[in-house]
Amino acid sequence: MSALETLNKDELFTPEIRAEIDREIAKYPEGQKQSAVMAALRIVQDDNGGWLTQERMDEVAAYLDMPPIAVYEVATFYSMYEHKPVGRNKLCICTNVSCMINGSDKIVEHLNNKLGIKWGEVTEDGRFSLKEVECLGACGGAPMMQVGRKYYENLTPETLDSILDELE
Amino acid sequence: MANEVLFRNLDLERLWDIDQYRSRGGYEVLTRILTQKTPPAEVIEWMKTSGLRGRGGAGFPTGLKWSFINRDAPVDKYLVCNSDEGEPGTFKDRDILRYNPHALVEGMVIASYVIGAHRAYNYIRGEFWEPYERFQNAIDQAREAGLVGKDILGSGYDCEVHVHLGGGAYVCGEETALLESIEGKKGQPRFKPPFPAHVGLYGCPTVINNTETLSSVPSILREGAEWFRDLGVENSGGSKLFSISGHVKNPGVFELPMGTPFAELFELAGGMRDGSKLKAVIPGGSSSPVIPGEIMMDLTMDYDCIAKAGSMLGSGAVIVMDDTTCMVKVLDRMSYFYHEESCGQCTPCREGTGWLWRVVNRIENGEGRPEDLDLLLDVQGRIRGKTICALGDAAAMPVEGMLRHYRDEFQYHIDHKKCMVGAGA
Questions:
Q1: A46 touches chain B (CB under 8 A)
Q2: Which of residues 292-321 of B touch A (CB under 8 A)?
Q3: What domain range includes position A68?
Q4: Is A9 contained in some domain?
Q5: Is the domain of A43 the same as that of A93?
Q6: Does B107 touch chain A (CB under 8 A)?
Q7: A135, B252: Cβ pair inside 8 Å?
Q8: What is the C-alpha to C-alpha distance for residues A153 and A149, in angstroms, rounded to an integer?
Q9: Chain A contact for B170 (CB, 8 A cutoff)
Q10: pLDDT, tens digit, for every residue of B126-148?
């Protein structure tokens, strides 16, 4: 018997997380639990410090009655799921055309120098990590970045400094 | 006249609240249709008359799309809204979700009624958390008012509206990739036919419309199909949201009638920043071929005029570039984007976008070879029309456009191993 088959659904996750995932499942027709996989991965990732482990993905698979491979496929296809540790604040910097021609290079350079990290790296204190992202649909406020659920627009090295100061 | 349809309530405070929306006639149309049990075919005729075409970029006539659904088929039908706004340069649907979410809720329920659906999903890109909360709040308010859910306004018609959040994938803006994504799979586009109107979400008949398209429906039905059509020009009915960004003084989203001169939109956006000179414009999102500034200043913002100039109106996303902009660098960034976002399903796109990016990137880095420009044209031609979805075409078209208008700049990069516009080197 594999480890997966021994997982008891009622013991997976906390009751709060189970309730949250169940609310997502309820959005879809009977028998379409798999539709909740993206939400479930997001919820579990948020609970796990912003990244997914194989163990957590396996739990999602068991909870939604999906083969683990189907969950891995989803978790590796979409860019918002992380597979290695990230900072407490994941700085997602847009470098696509509108942001680029409005100076996103300077924003990135400033962050590289100030934090001493490059794309995909985490600061030693675990406070920040840096991620290059594609157009986030806020080009009127270019250059911009996303941290957590929030957008920060019209960035300059100066405003960036004060934003970083406020992020724990 | 600006702000006639989607931005008509911009002057109100907390315009995203249901009371504010209703104070300007919101939900009147839905109420009328459901209580009078208006025949769906009648609504479809109005939509056809209005000239509304899909605002996500493809411009397919909305009324015609709705008419493809066999309402009487003994299976579930679905209405899906595409709020996976991701075409670089586009940021209009975000403003609809934030500032006019009830127009979308009303439009979704009306469209659902017309096609005989009892469940509607709005697929919102995962990064749009704040817009998602606004929209979810609008659904909740509408449900409380009896405008969403079971037996709406005592009409016997049920319609649930739900949000499905994306996870970060440009390709999910393609309608069949979006359906795969709702089904809990990788967002890889489906081969067509069958089209979603026959085999869509969970194998059932499905209509997929863009956010702006569905949000326009209540105004069209309230003010009249002819009124909407006559706001615009022949073949491009109504008004449209234009997202304008880049080197303009006041970037933002502007609602203007179709057929408005570009020069007018440009002026609304404050013209060029810091007295710099207009060089080039991407008129409809990064997939649309670039147009030199002096040509653009004579064009109008409608499907036919932009098409005649060799580009596309697309999503109405205008990126303005000044004369310090290096076109090689711009194309390098765009090609990287399409390579990064290719889902990998079709060989011409998966491999071709990689070739395009690597060749443009080596030109940008001073390692271009004499044969590279012809190679680029050859590769882009081998992607176009040879893939399941339009992402391949979207990657190829800007390459051809850049070389059509700015070949000398690329040639200079190859010959001199540096940039001819100082700042962009």
A1: no
A2: 317, 319, 321
A3: 3-77
A4: yes
A5: no
A6: no
A7: no
A8: 13
A9: yes
A10: 999 999 999 999 999 999 999 99
| Positive or negative: CA dihedral A46, A48, A51, A52 | negative
* ipTM reported for the complex, 2 dp: 0.96
Query: How much is the mean pLDDT over chain B?
Result: 96
Whether the per-residue pLDDT at B39 is higher than 70: the answer is yes
Which chain A residues touch B184 with a CB distance below 8 Å? Answer: 32, 34-38, 64, 66, 70, 74
Q: Which two tokens stand for residue A112?
A: 């590289």
Residue A86 has pLDDT above 50, yes or no: yes
Q: CA-CA distances (angstroms) from residue B57 to B60, B61, B244?
A: 9, 12, 15
Query: Which of residues A56, A77, A98 is at a domain's end?
Result: A77
Same domain, residue pair A70 and A94: no
Global confidence as pTM: 0.97
Instruction: Please say whether the beta carbons of B25 and B222 come within 8 A.
Output: yes
> Do A148 and A107 belong to one domain?
yes
Are residues B167 and A134, on separate chains, in Cβ contact within 8 Å? no
Residues A73 and A14 grouped into a single domain: yes
Q: CB distance A29–B119 less than 8 Å?
A: yes
pLDDT attached to residue B213? 98
Q: Is A82 within the bounds of a domain?
A: no
Tell whether A111 is within 8 A of chain B (Cβ): no
Q: What distance in Å separates the CA atoms of residue B418 and residue B425, rounded to the nearest whole number?
A: 6
Residues A66 and A11 in one domain: yes
Of the candidates B169, B253, B319, the beta carbon closest to that of A97 is on B319
Distance CA A50, CA B298 (A): 50
A93 and A160 in one domain? yes
Nearest to A35 among B166, B183, B325 (CB): B183
CB contact under 8 A, B251 and A37: no
Contacts of range B271-274, beta carbons closer than 8 Å, 24 or more positions apart:
B272/B247, B272/B248, B272/B320, B272/B322, B273/B247, B273/B248, B273/B249, B273/B322
- Is there a single domain that holds both residue A68 and residue A95? no
| Predicted local confidence at residue A3, as pLDDT | 55
Contact A32/B330, CB-based, under 8 Å?
A: no
Contact A27 B164 (CB under 8 A): yes
Q: How far is B161 from chain A (nearest CA, A)?
A: 9
Residue A6 has pLDDT above 80, yes or no: no
- Per-residue pLDDT, averaged over B362-377, amounts to 97
Rg (CA), chain A: 18
Residue A162: give its domain's CATH number.
3.40.30.10
Gap between the Cα atoms of A4 and A14, Å rounded: 18
pLDDT at B421 (0 to 100)? 83
Same domain? For A72 and A95 the reply is: no
CATH number at residue A25: 1.10.10
- Max Cα separation, chain B? 74
Across the interface, do B202 and A29 touch by the CB < 8 Å criterion? yes
Contact B86 A101 (CB under 8 A): no
| H-helix segments, B119-224 | 129-144, 175-182, 211-223
Tell me the pLDDT band of A1, cut-offs 50, 70 and 90.
very low
Region of B260 please: left (phi>0), alpha (psi -120 to 50) or beta: beta
Residue after which a domain boundary falls, among A15, A48, A77:
A77
Contacts of A38 in chain B (CB under 8 A): 126, 164-167, 181, 184
